[in-house]
Amino acid sequence: MPAPRGVLTARRSPRLPFLDVPYFDAASAAPLHPVARQALLAALDEGWADPARLHREGRRARLLLDAARETAAEAVGCRPDELVFTPSGTAAVHSGMAGALAGRRRVGRRLVVSSVEHSCVLHAAEAHEEAGGEFHLAPVDRTGLLDLPAFRSLLRPGTALACVQSANHETGTVQPVAEAAAACREEGVPLLVDAAQSLGWEAPPGGWSLLTASAHKWGGPPGIGLLAVRKGTRFSPARPVDERESGRFPGFPNLPAAVAAAASLRAVRQEAADEAARLRALVDRLRARVPALVPDTEVVGHPGLRLPHLVTFSCLYVDGEALLTELDRAGFSVSSGSSCTSDTLVPSHVLKAMGVLSEGNVRVSLPRGTSEEDVERFLGVLPGIVAGVRSSLSAPVAGGPREQAPPQAPPQAPEGSPAQEEAQEQEGSPEGAVPREGGGRAPGGAAAVVDSRGKRCPIPVIELARRIGDVPPGRVVAVLSDDEAARLDVPEWCRMLGHEYVGETPAEGGGTAYLVRRAHG
Amino acid sequence: MPAPRGVLTARRSPRLPFLDVPYFDAASAAPLHPVARQALLAALDEGWADPARLHREGRRARLLLDAARETAAEAVGCRPDELVFTPSGTAAVHSGMAGALAGRRRVGRRLVVSSVEHSCVLHAAEAHEEAGGEFHLAPVDRTGLLDLPAFRSLLRPGTALACVQSANHETGTVQPVAEAAAACREEGVPLLVDAAQSLGWEAPPGGWSLLTASAHKWGGPPGIGLLAVRKGTRFSPARPVDERESGRFPGFPNLPAAVAAAASLRAVRQEAADEAARLRALVDRLRARVPALVPDTEVVGHPGLRLPHLVTFSCLYVDGEALLTELDRAGFSVSSGSSCTSDTLVPSHVLKAMGVLSEGNVRVSLPRGTSEEDVERFLGVLPGIVAGVRSSLSAPVAGGPREQAPPQAPPQAPEGSPAQEEAQEQEGSPEGAVPREGGGRAPGGAAAVVDSRGKRCPIPVIELARRIGDVPPGRVVAVLSDDEAARLDVPEWCRMLGHEYVGETPAEGGGTAYLVRRAHG
C-alpha cells in the first residue's frame, strides 16, 4: 500500500550493520552510534591513564576528559563545572537525589516525584522514606501528562526536592518541564529533571536545578551517565566520596565512555531534527494503523506531546509475554510496559498511574535509522500474531461484547468449590441473585460470578468477556481475581467495550470482586 | 653494562603500540590489554542491548554477561552467583563494605581496617563513622606488613567487618591474607579483601568473605569492578537498589566492559607466571641499583613479600613533584606516593602508617611487556635527575652530614623575625643556648634553630642538613616546620644519616619543633 507522503521522501539513515533484525526497543538501549564507537576506540588508546596523574599519559587523559565535559555540558545547556560523569543514568539519579535531599535537609525531608518517573527515581524515593524522609507522588492524567495543579499543591513548605522526567520511557509523553520548573521556582524547591529519554533529541527547557541522563539511550556506550547540578543548588554528595568528579562521584572515571558519550551526543543532536521528523512520521503511521488493524487495541500516551520515536499500545485478551515471544519469533524486538529494569511482567507503575489498560502492552521504540520497510513489515505481521495469541488463549473474537455462546466450554471452577456453587446457583436464577445483607455470597448484587482467581491476566478479562453475554443487559457480573493487573484491565475493558464498571469489593475467600454492569443494546 | 643473567634471557612481551614512552605507572592504570580491546569491541557489537529484556538482543546480551561472570568467578575463585560487576573498584569497595556493615548491624558497628588500605576503604570507613559507626586502624610495620597480633586484638566482640588488602598499591607489600582470614574466622568476623593490585597476578588465598577488584589495574577497561560475596555472608545492600546484579548493584550494567574485564583477566593470568618472573627480575634490579646510584635514597616496602612489578623509593632533599616533572620530561611516567585518587602531594597515609620517608617518593610500577632497555634507560637518567633537582633546591651534596660551610648562603629568616633573633643569639653562643624554664625560645634545649615554617618539604630537611654542621656533635638542632610531611621526614633523615631524633614539641608562634641531636664522629 502507498505510504503517506513525506515518509517516502524522508532521508533514510542506513540500518546499523549489526542489527540483523528490526530492533524496536531503542528506549531500553540503543545500538552504539558509529561516532560513539570511533570515539571510544580513540579514547581507549589515548585516555586509558588516570586523569588525576601528573605524567603525560595522565595529562592527555585529563585533556580528553575536560573536552568531553565541555561537549556534554554544551548539549545539556550548562557550564562544564556543573556537569559530572557517573557510571549510569541510574547512578546519576541516585546520587543527584541523595545529594539534593541531603543539601536541603534543614529545609525539610519532603520529596515530590511524578507518579510516572523511572523506577530508579522511585527506588531512591523509597530509600529516602526508609531513611526517615517522606515522598509524595504527583498524579498524571490518562495520557500520562503531569497534573500541574496537583503537582504545585504538593510543593508545600518543607519540600526539599521535586523530580519530573522530561519524557516518559514507556509512553513517550513529554512532560511540561518548563511549567513544573516555574512552579518549583515560585516555591523555592529545586527540580531534578530525568532527561534520560529525551536528551538525544533536545535539551530540556531550562529552569531545572539538577538534570540526569544516560548515554546508552542515545547511542552512546553503556557505563556512563550525566549529572548536572546548577551553581547555587544546595548539594551534599552522599558519602563516601573522593576527589573524582568534583567530589560528586567517586571512583576511577570511565573516561573512554565519557568521551564516546559526549561525541555521540553531539552527533545525534546534529541529525536530531531530520531524524525526529522521519521517525515521527513512522510512529504516526503505527499510531493510526495498529488500532485499525488489530481490534480491541488502544494506543497509550499523549497524542501530541510525545517523543518522536516511541509508541505504546495495549491489546485486550493478550498475554504480554506471549505477544513479545511471538513478535521476537517473527524477528521484531519490542518491549512490554513494565519497568526499565526487568521483564517481570508485573503491571507497569506508569500504566497504573495513568489508569489505562496494561493487558497485552507493547512498546515500540524505533532506533535512529529504522526503515519504513521494517515498520510496514511489523504492521503486516502484528494482526496475525495478536490473533494467534488470542486464539491460543480462547479469547472472544474481536469487536465487542459477544451475545452468542462461547465457541469453547468456559473454564470450570474446581468441583465443589464455593465459586462453582455460586455460579451454578446464579446461573439457575440470574434475576434473583441479589446480595444478601450481612452474608451474601454474590458480591455487589451480581447476577453472575466469574471466578478467575489463581489465573494471571489476561485470563480474568477473557473469562469476563465470554460470560458477559450470560446476563441480561443492565445486570452485573462479578469477576473474582487475585491478579493485581485486573484492577487496571477490567475497568479498561469496560470503557473500551461500553460496559459500565461498577467498582470493586473484597471477595469472600480472598482476592477482589470487580463488578461490571452489562451495557444495554 | 651487563645485565644479570635470567633477565636477558627472559621472554620479552612486545611493548603495546600506543605506549610511545616508557610508562611506569601500571599501578594507577594499565594500558588496555589487546584481549580486552578485542573482547570489548565484540561485546559492543553483540552485547549492547539490555540483558534483562526477553527479545533476542536481550537474550544475547544476557548470555554474554553470564559467560563473563563465570570467567571472572573462576579467576577470583568463587561461584558465579557470588560475583557481581560494579562500575569501578571503588564502587565495589564502597558497596561491599556498606552491605557487609549493614548486614551485621545487629552484631555491632565496629569496623577494623589496615592502616595502609586504599583511600576508598578509608573513605568508606570515615562515612561509616559519620553515620554513627566506629572504625579502628590496624597498624603495619616499617615494611608495610600488617601487624597480625595487633590486628587480631582489634577483632573484639561487636566487630562487623575487617578489611585487609591483598597487596599494597604504593609499596607492593603483599599482606598475610590467609593469616588475617584465619584470625577473622576464629572471631567470627567477615573479611573483605581488596585485591585490586594483585588479582591480575593471582587469586588471593581463600578464607575471605568479600573480595573486590578493579579491571583497569590488570589491563581491563575502565568502568568495571568486581565484588564477590561468599554465600553465607550476611549482606544487606545499600539502598536504593534494583533488580540488576542480584540486587547488589543498581543501574544498567556495563556489559561490554564486564566481558572485556573477564576475558583480559583470564588472558593476563595465563601469562602471569612468566611475566611475573620477568618483571620481578627487573624490579630486583631497580631495588638493588637505585640506592647504589642515587645517594641518600631508600627503597620502601617489604624486601621479599611483594608484588612482582612494583618498587617504591624515597630520595632525601627532593621535591616529589619536581622529580615527577623532570622524569616526565625525560620520558618516564611514574607516580608519587600519595593516594591513588590524586596527586595532591600531601604525605601518603601509607608511608605515614609505615613510618618511612615520604620525601622525594617515586613509585615505579611496570606494565606487562616492559622492556629491560627501558628499565636500564631509567637507571641511566635517574641519578642525574635527582642530582639536578637537589641542586636546584640547594640541597647538600650527598653522602651524609656535612661539616664544611654550605656552598650557598643559607636561607635567611625575615629581618627582625623571632626566628632570626633566635638564630643570631644561638649562633653567637651555641654552647649556652639552653632552654629557659617557662619561657625559653629555643625549644628542647636546642643549640640552633632552623625556622622552615611556610616552606614545603623537602626544604625543612634540606635546611636541617645544611645547618646540622653548625652545632657540635651531641648538641641539638630544632627544625620548625608547619608542613605535615616533616613529621615523617625529619626522623627518617636522622635514621638514614645516623643522627638522633629526640622528638617534637609545639613551636612558639605555630607549627612544630623537631629536635635532632647531631651524631658524634
TrEMBL record, chains A, B:
Biased composition annotated in UniProt, kind: Low complexity: 414-436
Chain coiled-coil ranges: 262-289
Annotated region described as Disordered, given as residue ranges: 394-450
Domain of life of the organism encoding this protein: Bacteria
CDD domains, sorted: SirA_YedF_YeeD (cd00291)
Cofactor (UniProt): pyridoxal 5'-phosphate
Reactions catalysed according to its record: (sulfur carrier)-H + L-cysteine = (sulfur carrier)-SH + L-alanine
Alphabetically ordered keywords of this record: Coiled coil
UniProt KW Coiled coil keyword: yes
Pfam families named in the record: Aminotran_5, TusA
Keyword hit for Disulfide bond: no
UPF0033 domain residues: 450-474
Family, similarity comment: Belongs to the class-V pyridoxal-phosphate-dependent aminotransferase family. NifS/IscS subfamily.
Name under which the protein is recorded: Cysteine desulfurase/sulfurtransferase TusA family protein
The species this protein was found in: Streptomyces thermolineatus
